[in-house]
Amino acid sequence: MTASTKITVLPAMDDLRRIVAGMLGSMVRAEKGKAVAPRAGVSTVSAVYIDDTNEIVAVVALELDLAASLGAALTMIPARVAAEQVSRKQIDEMIFDNAREVLNVLTSALNRADGIHVRLATVHRTPAEPLPEAAAALVAAPGNRLDISLAVPNYGGGNASVYVI
């Protein structure tokens, strides 16, 4: 099976919203968002997903605002703490680890019924931690991308992009 046949369908926006809402135990709003591309000069938290052959098959990029909102809301860290960290353009380890857990659970939206298994490989804070070359190429290539804006009650939100091969 070639890389281009491994993932061809983007997850539905409402599936992503339901997964996040289920994790946070709150109503999360979702609507069409703006593209998020992890690159130099842009602060994001980006997850790289691989298949069972260890090939990169997807990237989910979160704006720092959204990563902080999700990470803080997961364990009820006060929203002001997340906002302070965003203003410094750097989130601490606890909020980062919580955002990583949300990105890990989002793997369920990327797995397909035809047996292709996708798992979280790495999570990067860009621009400090650049994406692996193959992940950066996936983000840069025109193709399958879903741009979504998520809003978490009492925390704020932001944009995310899901890139798949």
Give your account of this protein's structure.
This protein is of the alpha+beta class and 165 residues long. The chain has one domain: Chemotaxis protein chec, CATH 3.40.1550.10. It contains 7 helices and 6 strands. Strands 1-5-6-3-2-4 form a 6-stranded antiparallel beta sheet, with helices on both faces. β5 and β6 form a beta hairpin. The longest helix has 13 residues. The model has no long low-confidence stretch (mean pLDDT 92).
In short:
The protein is α+β, with helices and mostly antiparallel strands.
What's the arrangement of secondary structure elements?
Blueprint (H helix, E strand, L loop, with lengths): L2 H4 L6 H12 L4 E4 L11 E7 L5 E8 H11 L4 H9 L5 H13 L1 H4 L8 E8 L6 H8 L3 E9 L3 E9 L1
Antiparallel strand pairs: 1-5, 2-3, 2-4, 3-6, 5-6
Helix pairs in contact: 3-4, 3-5
CATH superfamily: CheC-like
Please identify the oligomeric state: single chain
Gyration radius (Cα, Å) is 15 Å
Strands in their spatial order, largest beta sheet: 1-5-6-3-2-4
Tell me what portion of residues adopts beta-strand conformation: 25-35%
Helix count, DSSP H or I runs of 4 or more residues: 7
Mean pLDDT: 92
* Low-confidence blocks of residues: none
Order of helices and strands: HHEEEHHHHEHEE
How far apart, in Å, are the first and last alpha carbons? 13 Å
Overall structural domain count: 1
Q: What profile does the largest beta sheet have?
A: 6 strands, antiparallel
Portion in helices: 25-40%
CATH topology, by name, is: Chemotaxis protein chec
